[in-house]
Every structure is written in structure tokens, then in C-alpha cells.
Amino acid sequence: MDEIEEIKIQKQYIEKVANLNENKNLKYTILTMGCQLNENDSEKICGMLEEMGYIKTEKIEEANLAIFNTCCVRENAEERLFGKIGELKNLKEKNNLIIAIGGCMMQEEHILDKIKKSFSYVDIVFGTHTLHKLPEDIFKVLESQKKIKDVIDIDGNVYEDLPIKRESKIQANVTIMYGCNNFCSYCIVPYVRGRERSRKPKDIIKEVRELASQGYKEIMLLGQNVNSYLRSEMEAIKQGTLKNEDGDYKEINSFAKLLREINKIDGIERIRFISPHPKDFTLDVIEAIADCEKVCKFVHLPLQSGSTNLLKVMNRKYTKEQYLELVEKMREKIPNIKFSTDIIVGFAGETEEDFEDTLDVVRKVNFEQVFMFIYSRRVGTPGDKMPNQIPEEIKHKRFDRLKELVEKQIAENNKEYIGTTQRILVEGKSKNNEKMLTGRTESNKVVVFEGDENLINSIIDIKIVEDHMWYFKGEI
Ligand code: 5AD
Ligand code: SF4
């Protein structure tokens, strides 16, 4: 069965469930863990559920259906999930609650075993490659009260045209590719999300055009490794295993070209993307960022470690010097470009000198934002099997040192914003103060200011007047 046929069938299941649920006023609740890709998956889950007649609630006690969309990139999530499922046992009995658990964690054997053993009352378990079949799974549970396990190990396909209920009316997430081929030695993602596969350019362009016509201003392009968009497909075409019959890849055959094409779409004013890999940051992508006025001059460039030795152990395929050269090259070609990054502290074998190298890169690049993580061993990855693990205490001490440096730099950088005029996309009313509006700069800094509600969803100039570390106060 092909993907289009499969989605047709799932739409029939959506209708069947909607018929069963008619006039019942059923509610669902969803908990999403992890990254923006998971959030985008959850938006699709919500889209399907609402077409099946379920209404969203934040209150688990009044829900008829509870969905967990899980992440397994770092620890803690497991205990948290098991705690949550445990809490649901009473509600399961009292309200006949249907419990469905999906996402990355469900692709791990030891988690599936644990659920089977300790939480046999869970109704549906679905993986990362079977999300689109949730309507069928729910229908089967409603009809026969059977337990469903719908997890497959092979790489999933790319399914288009699922219903979607987006969180924001201003910024939209658009997944452009699934999976990862990089196998960084600390990372579980390639094992739970499969090999890289990209959506067709025409499907992405169609989605972004629709978003523009719905009034969306900002697009976030998502993938585990966005700058290798279409690389596997191009390779397959070269080898003759993929046909380019419909000319799907004639005009757009790379990430750089995709950026240029999306940049032409009227109505869209800002384009962002996460995450690129430094090793795939080719000149054509740098030039596209420079040329495309809508592409934010703010790039998330995951460093992970500043030590060439450790980068090799991590299987990152670049050196400290190559990373710094890339930053320099981008600064040369893209005036005023700013960076954010991800850093892992305490990976196996990290010496004091390795860690100093990381601090050195942080000092040199002067990131606008650093997402810092303590290394967390993941079952099944090479990192977990390495003998020279770092004691927790050292990991935490290094983490604190890094944090201190980063916060000092952010404080310094913030001073430079004071008195400048920034272009802000106005997102809505401030959560902490109804009378104020909130928005973001191109470099993703939050700015709060007084203004009329009808400014929401427009880009305006704001003068930055006060620095509050994690946000600025501004004036129109
Ligand atoms: N431990 C800690 N951090 C990790 N990341 C990925 N795997 C791990 C792990 N095992 C971090 C990386 C990645 C971000 C999404 O999560 O920094 O870029
Ligand atoms: Fe994980 Fe590396 Fe792939 Fe990112 S590029 S998802 S860190 S394996």
C-alpha cells in the first residue's frame, strides 16, 4: 500500500471514530516531551483527535483519552513517564480512560518490556513511524477493547496531508525531514527515528503557502539535520534506486534551494531552521542565508564539545578549528549574524583540557544562547559502552562553570542591545502582564512593551530600553 492510500484509510477511520463519538462530548489531554519535532508531531496528533470529535482539556480528571508523546534523548524522562502512567491507574478504572503512549521512547525495547510488565492497562503503544495510524488504533480500542501495540523497527515513510492543529497562529513548525544518519556516539535519535528521509519540495512549498494564506508570519523548518535535506534522495537518484519521474527534485534539490524558494512566498516574513550540522554547512547554504532577506541572521549551530579529541570520540566529523573557521566564514558572508548552540558536558573521556577547549570556543564565538546538557548515557549507543565515564560530581561542577561563563556573556551581550532599534514579531499579550505585548527579535530575544492589541502578528520597530537578563523591555 502506498502512503496516499494509507492516509485515505486513516481518514476513513477518523470518520468512523467521529461517528462513534458523536454527541458524547469526549475530551482528550496530551503531554508532549522533548524537541520541536515532537511538538510538531503532537500538533498532528491533536489535529487527528479533534477531527475524531475529541475536545482538548488540560485537566486529566475530565479526559476520556490521554496521550503521551515521549522523548528519550536524555534521562529523567523515563521516570517521569512511568510516574505519570502510574498515576493514571485510578482514572483508568474510574473514567474508563483510554491511555495511548507514543513517540521516541516507544522505539526502545527495554521501555516496551517495562510497559508490558508494569503497566498492562495501557491501551495503545505507538512508535515514531506509526503516528499516522492513531485513528485506526483508537477505533480498534473503542470497538473491541483490545490492547494495541503499533511499533515498527524499519524506517517509516513520509506521510502527507494529516490533519493538524497548530499551537500558534503566528509561528508555524514545518518538518522538512525525518530521521538522522549521523550516529553521534552519545545520541539515541538515529536508533529511534530511523534513517534520513526528506519530504518532497512541492509538499513543503504547498504547506508554507497555505500557512501564509492563513496569516502565519514565521516558519520554523525542522529536522534532525536540516542541511542534509534531500541528500539521501539525491544519492538514491544517482544510484538509480529512486526515480525522478515527476521532476519532483528538478528545481529544488538541496536545503539552500529550499530556503530560496520559501523566501519567495508572499506573507511569510521570517524563516528559521533547526538543527543544522556544522559538517554539512556548505557554502550554498551560507549564501542562501545571506541573500534571503526573510531568513533570520541567527543560526543554531550545535557545537557539543570544543575539543577536537572529544569531537572525534563523539563522531561529530569536525574539529575545533573547523567549527571556528565555519563561524568566521559565516560572519564574513553574513553581516551581523548571531549564533546559538548546544553543548554536552561530561561526555565519556572528557578531560579537564577537553572541557577548557569547550570554554575557549564559547569565549571566542560569544553565543547569544547556549543550551547546556549534562551527558546522559543512553542504552544502545556507543557512548554508553565507553569505559571512561565521568563521575556525576565532576559533570555537575563543569556544567556550573560553563553556565557561569554563558550567563556572564549573555549579560554582556544584552548591554549592547540597550538603545538599539530591533524588528520584533509581535506574538501576543504578555503572560505576566495583560497590559503589555510580547514579541521576539530576529535573534530570538523576548521583548515586552506597551502597545495596541491590533499590533499582534505584525513586525514592528521597537527601541530596547531595559535589560532583564531573560527578556528586554522596549518602546514603540
Ligand atoms: N546526553 C546529553 N545531551 C544529549 N543530547 C543528545 N543526546 C544527549 C545525551 N545522551 C543533546 C545534544 C543535542 C540536543 C538536542 O540534545 O546537545 O544537540
Ligand atoms: Fe543525534 Fe547527532 Fe543525529 Fe543530532 S546529528 S540527532 S546529535 S545523531
Parts with pLDDT < 50 across at least 5 consecutive residues: none
Which percent band covers the strand fraction?
Answer: 15-25%
From the spread of the alpha carbons, the general shape counts as: globular
Please report the number of helical segments.
15
CATH-defined superfamily of the largest domain: tm_1862 like domain
According to DSSP, the number of beta strands is 19
State Rg: 23 Å
Bound molecules: 5'-deoxyadenosine, iron/sulfur cluster
Q: So, CATH architecture of the largest domain?
A: Alpha-Beta Horseshoe
Largest sheet: 6 strands, parallel
Protein structure class: alpha/beta
User: How many domains in all?
Assistant: 3
Rounded mean pLDDT score = 94
Strand order of the largest sheet: 2-1-3-4-5-6
Walk me through this protein's architecture.
- This protein has 3 domains: about 5-150, Methylthiotransferase, N-terminal domain (Rossmann fold, 3-Layer(aba) Sandwich), CATH 3.40.50; about 170-415, pyruvate-formate lyase- activating enzyme (Alpha-Beta Horseshoe); about 420-475, Beta Barrel (OB fold (Dihydrolipoamide Acetyltransferase, E2P)).
- The strands form 5 sheets. The protein has a 6-stranded parallel sheet, with helices on both faces.
- α5 (about 135-145) links the parallel β5 (about 125) and β6 (about 150).
- α1 crosses α5 (about 135-145) and α13 runs parallel beside α15 (about 390-415).
- About 35% of the residues are buried.
- The model has no long low-confidence stretch (mean pLDDT about 95).
- It has helices at about 5-20, 35-50, 75-95, 110-120, 135-145, 190-195, 200-215, 230-240, 255-265, 285-290, 310-315, 320-335, 350-365, 380-385, 390-415, and strands at about 25-30, 55, 65-70, 100-105, 125, 150, 170-175, 175-180, 195-200, 220, 270-275, 300, 340-345, 370-375, 420-430, 435-440, 445-450, 460-465, 470-475.
- The N and C termini lie far apart (about 55 Å).
- The protein is built from 15 helices and 19 strands.
- The chain is α/β, with parallel strands linked by helices.
- Bound molecules: 5'-deoxyadenosine and iron/sulfur cluster (SF4).
- 5'-deoxyadenosine (5AD) binds near residues 73, 186, 302, 344 and 376.
